[in-house]
């Protein structure tokens, strides 16, 4: 029952981010239509778009902290209502001042959604934060689908506002689903119930250090992506003298890399890889790839590196960083999400301004700033890893436990595969009217264990384990026989 509820909860939350992905580009994708409707130049539309950033910057910290106090569901629902007002309002308004207000509202909606959703996913049992990584995939899907919808609508000469309304209606339907769903228990409430004490004071220095490092990482991980996506196409045409098409394709390659990276990181986290190590390795690779992009001078190498850079910089490492951050301050996950993304918004606000100025000197210089950002990100990760050891004080057998986690992962996968094979044997035995029990075959299996396991005591244990497995297989086969189906 609980699993079913959580499955629906996850679906609703991912659908929100699909809509949010659309929200991120719906204004830029409709700039001409909006400027006509508002009777303003394109520059005004661009100014209105910046309102989203302002809303985000100011709302993250406040909403994140409040989400710890008043619960995740309330904030997600509020975010959805605000987003709906944004979409429907944008469709109808003809006044750019109202549009600016709506854009700020969209920024606040974004913060409310993030402040509620990221902590919720961290509070879902047994997820290891991997669910948060898929948020990125849902957003990319939204960003992929929206231009197609707009293109189709333009082909049939439809009114631009219809897409805004359609997205708003999806949100309302999703909100009706959300209201009926239960959320996992919040960490703070759990902690209170168990009367858990806070971290020891003597490690508070390291905790403050970590807090700062991870905040900087919130900035640098976002800056790394923003700078690349903003400038790579121009860098391709102006510096590498690539054709327009090939230069635009650099960004598509980066997006493909990003989605691939999300899937890769999702799988790796499920296999209990150390998240901090993963973030550090990915950032180290981003640094090397940026070096190649800036200094190889070869458009083919730059294309390949853009694809790989999508994996390492935009495959969800930012979200993994946030997961680590949240797990260090379990009672303040909402607040932490707020702070982390405030730094991210600061990057999306400052990087275009800084690089805009630098671009007047040279485009090569602009891209080299990303090399420095990648290096800083990598250094933050290394320092973070070091500080975590001080704060976490991991058990001396933590490394072994991680290895055991990986082994268990494979044992379970292999066991499932074995059960599927014995079920197939069961069906064939039924067709040929053979007995389920095959003592000779079981003896062969036991003899192999005799040969393979040198230690006599372990050998006996292995045999017992195997007998249990075989018994389970036989039960399955008997079930096939009796019911004509697989249990
Ligand atoms: O090999 C078979 O005949 C099977 O049905 C598989 C299996 C097993 O689990 O390995 C199960 C039952 C038999 O008694 C022997 C072996």
From TrEMBL:
<keyword id="KW-0813">Transport</keyword>
<feature type="transmembrane region" description="Helical">
    <location>
        <begin position="307"/>
        <end position="329"/>
    </location>
</feature>
<dbReference type="InterPro" id="IPR036979">
    <property type="entry name" value="CM_dom_sf"/>
</dbReference>
<feature type="domain" description="Major facilitator superfamily (MFS) profile">
    <location>
        <begin position="9"/>
        <end position="389"/>
    </location>
</feature>
<feature type="domain" description="Chorismate mutase">
    <location>
        <begin position="391"/>
        <end position="481"/>
    </location>
</feature>
<feature type="transmembrane region" description="Helical">
    <location>
        <begin position="12"/>
        <end position="30"/>
    </location>
</feature>
<comment type="similarity">
    <text>Belongs to the major facilitator superfamily.</text>
</comment>
<feature type="transmembrane region" description="Helical">
    <location>
        <begin position="281"/>
        <end position="301"/>
    </location>
</feature>
<feature type="transmembrane region" description="Helical">
    <location>
        <begin position="74"/>
        <end position="92"/>
    </location>
</feature>
<dbReference type="Pfam" id="PF01817">
    <property type="entry name" value="CM_2"/>
</dbReference>
<dbReference type="InterPro" id="IPR036259">
    <property type="entry name" value="MFS_trans_sf"/>
</dbReference>
<dbReference type="InterPro" id="IPR002701">
    <property type="entry name" value="CM_II_prokaryot"/>
</dbReference>
<dbReference type="InterPro" id="IPR036263">
    <property type="entry name" value="Chorismate_II_sf"/>
</dbReference>
<dbReference type="InterPro" id="IPR020846">
    <property type="entry name" value="MFS_dom"/>
</dbReference>
<feature type="transmembrane region" description="Helical">
    <location>
        <begin position="336"/>
        <end position="359"/>
    </location>
</feature>
<keyword id="KW-0812">Transmembrane</keyword>
<feature type="transmembrane region" description="Helical">
    <location>
        <begin position="158"/>
        <end position="179"/>
    </location>
</feature>
<feature type="transmembrane region" description="Helical">
    <location>
        <begin position="245"/>
        <end position="269"/>
    </location>
</feature>
<dbReference type="InterPro" id="IPR051788">
    <property type="entry name" value="MFS_Transporter"/>
</dbReference>
<protein>
    <submittedName>
        <fullName>MFS transporter</fullName>
    </submittedName>
</protein>
<feature type="transmembrane region" description="Helical">
    <location>
        <begin position="42"/>
        <end position="62"/>
    </location>
</feature>
<dbReference type="Pfam" id="PF07690">
    <property type="entry name" value="MFS_1"/>
</dbReference>
<keyword id="KW-1133">Transmembrane helix</keyword>
<feature type="transmembrane region" description="Helical">
    <location>
        <begin position="208"/>
        <end position="233"/>
    </location>
</feature>
<dbReference type="InterPro" id="IPR011701">
    <property type="entry name" value="MFS"/>
</dbReference>
<keyword id="KW-0472">Membrane</keyword>
<feature type="transmembrane region" description="Helical">
    <location>
        <begin position="371"/>
        <end position="391"/>
    </location>
</feature>
């Amino acid at each position: 029952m609980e699993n079913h509820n959580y499955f629906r909860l996850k679906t609703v939350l991912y659908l929100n981010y699909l809509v949010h992905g659309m929200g991120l580009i719906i204004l830029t994708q409709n700039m001409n239509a909006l400027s006509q409707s508002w009777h303003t130049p394109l520059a005004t539309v661009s100014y209105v778009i910046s309102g989203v950033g302002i809303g985000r910057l100011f709302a993250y910290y406040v909403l994140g902290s409040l989400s710890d106090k008043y619960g995740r569901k309330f904030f997600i629902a509020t975010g959805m209502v605000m987003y709906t007002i944004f979409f429907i309002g944008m469709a109808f308004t003809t006044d750019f001042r109202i549009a600016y207000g709506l854009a700020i509202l969209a920024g606040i909606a974004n913060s409310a959604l993030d402040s509620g959703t990221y902590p919720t996913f961290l509070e879902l049992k047994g997820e290891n934060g991997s669910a948060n990584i898929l948020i990125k995939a849902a957003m990319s899907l939204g960003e992929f689908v929206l231009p197609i919808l707009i293109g189709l609508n333009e082909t049939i000469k439809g009114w631009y506002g219809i897409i805004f309304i359609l997205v708003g209606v999806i949100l309302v339907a999703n909100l009706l689903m959300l209201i009926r769903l239960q959320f996992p228990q919040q960490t703070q409430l759990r902690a209170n119930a168990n009367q858990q004490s806070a971290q020891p004071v003597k490690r508070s220095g390291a905790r403050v250090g970590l807090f700062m490092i991870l905040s900087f990482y919130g900035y640098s991980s976002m800056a790394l992506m923003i700078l690349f996506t903003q400038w790579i196409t121009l860098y391709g045409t102006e510096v590498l003298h690539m054709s327009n098409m090939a230069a635009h394709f650099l960004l598509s390659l980066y997006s493909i890399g990003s989605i691939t990276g999300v899937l890769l990181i999702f799988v790796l986290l499920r296999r209990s890889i150390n998240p901090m190590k993963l973030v550090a390795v990915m950032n180290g690779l981003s640094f090397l790839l940026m070096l190649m992009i800036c200094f190889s001078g070869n458009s083919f190498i730059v294309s390949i590196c853009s694809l790989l850079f999508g994996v390492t910089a935009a495959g969800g490492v930012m979200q993994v960083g946030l997961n680590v951050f949240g797990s260090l301050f379990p009672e303040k996950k909402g607040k932490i999400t707020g702070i982390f993304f405030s730094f991210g918004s600061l990057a999306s606000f400052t990087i275009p301004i800084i690089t805009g100025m630098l671009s007047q000197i040279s485009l090569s210089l602009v891209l080299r700033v990303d090399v420095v950002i990648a290096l800083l990100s990598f250094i933050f990760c290394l320092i973070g890893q070091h500080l975590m050891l001080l704060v976490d004080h991991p058990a001396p057998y933590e490394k072994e436990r991680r290895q055991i986690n990986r082994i268990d992962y494979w044992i379970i996968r292999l066991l499932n595969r074995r059960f599927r094979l014995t079920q197939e044997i069961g069906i064939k035995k039924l067709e040929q009217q053979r007995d389920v029990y095959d003592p000779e075959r079981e003896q062969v299996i036991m003899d192999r264990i005799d040969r393979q396991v040198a230690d006599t005591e372990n050998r006996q244990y292995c045999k017992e384990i195997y007998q249990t497995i075989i018994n389970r297989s036989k039960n399955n086969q008997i079930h096939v026989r009796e019911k004509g189906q697989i249990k």
